């Protein structure tokens, strides 16, 4: 019976393969669902010539394919070896192992002060700071802790972000001093009876200033999970109204308000927990203009992993926070402090022009693609992808892409097909928009560049993903 099933599957795959190869692209598109949608596809060969050109020059909403523009520009301008350095300066003196005076944490725009790149250890950087305090001879800190956030301007959100996104991890504040992606990792456990409230817990454990209003209910096991989270604008009061089936466990990262407060408050709580501080200050001071540190002492310092690792995370995981932090860093490094979204976008557009991209057909309101009002073309995206193949940072750029069926945002797609491990591509999704752009090694062994977009579709994204897979299978066989 198993042999029979295997033969049937092989025969079916053969029939599909013959069917795909017997039609051209437009015929294939006419057979797909979501005929209400707008479709665009550009495919380039190994010499940059167009193999497929379907609405290539028509404007599409790129969603997270916008990250390709931003991350390529950041990599070009700053280089893969660039590292963020976060210093803690001391203005005071050490008296009998007690630091008497101010500590100032100077934000550098580092998006990675969290556990994501440190084996899940959220306190990795905090532990490093404390270890350096110990080496300096400091066992107690008696003085105010303040922060310098002058590296960026005071715009915490890019233009065009929807307020509905601002409660979640993908719509967090952008600040030069940030901790745990400026989010609280909430766990909801429906461990009580039907009709009762589920229990909640959260990390980092120092996020005590957040107020959770738990109005959630446990429903019968046969019910579906119904999510509802909202953070009140400008506050850290978070309303929880989800309905969870009995025994269900839900994990969600929710945004916080006041990123600098979150960082300093979390670090101070960590110091108290470690015995380095005997009291908690109630008011945090923030420097908004550059400060001169010539007479201060660097008591502790942290250098991030190289930019190559940060870009890999941002691209594979489609991380909006990392991307926007790097966009503002690009602005600060190339156009002067404070870094702004506007100047970062200007720098990206200049880079795109250098790569042969028609920026008359590029509209950017942010770096990550979450904002409303972003437009480009699949032709432009393909032009950039092809241009990067001759860039001196090509290997880093290519390695940052998710791999079909293996990792990142396409880890669960294309498994069990010929496309498995033969595609490196960046996904994109916002409501009604699905995009996928990158590189494919075809059945003949050639590497092609593709950019595929579906805009204004109704219904679920899974149907569109299935259509994308059929299109990519067609390209894999044809070229």
Short description:
By secondary structure, the chain is an alpha/beta fold. 30% of the residues lie in helices and 23% in strands. It has two domains: 17-80 and 308-478, DD-peptidase/beta-lactamase superfamily (Beta-lactamase, 3-Layer(aba) Sandwich); 83-305, no CATH class.
Largest sheet: 6 strands, mixed
In CATH, the architecture of the largest domain is: 3-Layer(aba) Sandwich
Proportion of β residues?
15-25%
Distance between the termini: 36 Å
| Helix fraction by DSSP (H/I, runs of at least 4) | 25-40%
CATH level 1 class label of the largest domain: Alpha Beta
Averaging pLDDT over every residue, what do you get? Answer: 93
Number of strands: 19
CATH topology of the largest domain: Beta-lactamase
**Shape call:** globular
Q: Secondary-structure element sequence?
A: HHEEHEEHEEEEEEEEEEHEEHHHHHEEEH
The residue ranges in which pLDDT falls below 50 over 5 or more consecutive positions are: 1-20
Structural write-up:
The chain is of the alpha/beta class. It folds into two domains: 17-80 and 308-478, Beta-lactamase, CATH 3.40.710.10; 83-305, no CATH class. 30% of the residues lie in helices and 23% in strands. The protein is built from eleven helices and 19 strands. The chain has helices spanning 2-21, 25-31, 66-78, 124-136, 259-273, 307-317, 320-335, 341-354, 378-387, 394-399, 461-478; strands spanning 38-44, 50-54, 85-95, 98-106, 140-142, 145-148, 183-189, 199-203, 211-214, 217-219, 229-231, 237-240, 243-245, 249-255, 285-287, 297-303, 423-430, 433-441, 447-455. The strands form five sheets. Strands 3, 4, 5, 6, 15 and 16 form a six-stranded mixed β-sheet that branches. A five-stranded antiparallel β-sheet has the order 2-1-19-18-17, with helices on both faces. A hairpin with a 2-residue loop joins β17 (423-430) and β18. α3 packs across α8 (341-354) and α6 crosses α7 (320-335).
């Amino acid at each position: 019976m198993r042999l029979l099933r295997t033969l049937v599957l092989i025969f079916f795959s053969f029939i599909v393969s013959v069917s795909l190869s017997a039609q051209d692209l437009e015929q294939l598109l006419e057979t797909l669902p979501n005929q209400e949608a707008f479709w665009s596809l550009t495919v380039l060969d190994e010499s940059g010539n167009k193999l497929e050109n379907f609405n290539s020059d028509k404007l599409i909403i790129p969603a997270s394919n916008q990250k390709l523009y931003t991350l390529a520009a950041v990599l070009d301008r700053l280089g893969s070896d660039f590292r963020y350095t976060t210093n803690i300066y001391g203005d005071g003196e050490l008296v009998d192992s007690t630091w008497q005076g101010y500590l100032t944490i100077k934000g550098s725009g580092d998006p990675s002060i969290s556990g994501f790149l440190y084996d899940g250890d959220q306190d990795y950087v905090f532990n490093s700071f404390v270890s350096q305090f110990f080496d300096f001879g400091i066992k107690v800190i008696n003085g105010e802790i303040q922060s310098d956030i002058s590296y960026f301007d005071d715009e915490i959100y890019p233009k065009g972000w929807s307020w509905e996104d601002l409660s979640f991890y993908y719509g967090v504040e952008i600040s030069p001093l940030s901790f745990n992606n400026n989010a609280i990792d909430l766990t909801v456990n429906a461990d009580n009876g039907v009709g009762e409230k589920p229990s909640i817990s959260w990390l980092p454990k120092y996020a005590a200033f957040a107020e959770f209003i738990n109005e959630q209910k446990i429903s019968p096991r046969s019910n579906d999970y119904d999510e509802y989270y909202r953070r009140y604008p400008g506050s850290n009061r978070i309303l929880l109204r989800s309905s969870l089936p009995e025994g269900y466990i839900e994990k969600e990262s929710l945004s916080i308000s006041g990123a600098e407060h979150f960082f300093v408050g979390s670090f101070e709580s960590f110091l108290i927990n470690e015995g380095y501080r005997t009291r908690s200050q109630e008011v945090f001071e923030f420097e908004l203009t550059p400060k001169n540190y010539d007479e201060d002492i660097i008591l502790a310092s942290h250098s991030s992993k190289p930019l190559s690792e940060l870009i890999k995370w941002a691209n594979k995981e489609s991380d909006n926070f990392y991307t926007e932090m790097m966009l503002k860093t690009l602005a600060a490094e190339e156009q002067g402090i404070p870094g702004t979204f506007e100047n970062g976008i200007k720098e990206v557009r200049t880079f795109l022009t250098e790569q042969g991209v028609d920026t008359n057909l590029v509209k950017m309101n942010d770096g990550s693609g979450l904002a409303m009002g972003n437009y480009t073309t699949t032709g432009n995206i393909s032009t950039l992808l092809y241009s990067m193949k001759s860039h001196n940072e090509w290997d880093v750029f290519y390695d940052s892409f998710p791999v079909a069926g293996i990792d990142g945002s396409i880890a669960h797609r294309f498994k069990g097909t010929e496309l498995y491990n033969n595609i490196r591509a960046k996904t994109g999704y916002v409501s009604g928009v699905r995009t996928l752009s990158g590189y494919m090694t075809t059945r003949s062994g050639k590497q092609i560049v593709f950019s595929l977009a579906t805009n204004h579709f109704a219904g679920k994204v899974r149907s569109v993903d299935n259509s994308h897979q059929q299109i990519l299978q067609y390209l894999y066989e044809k070229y």
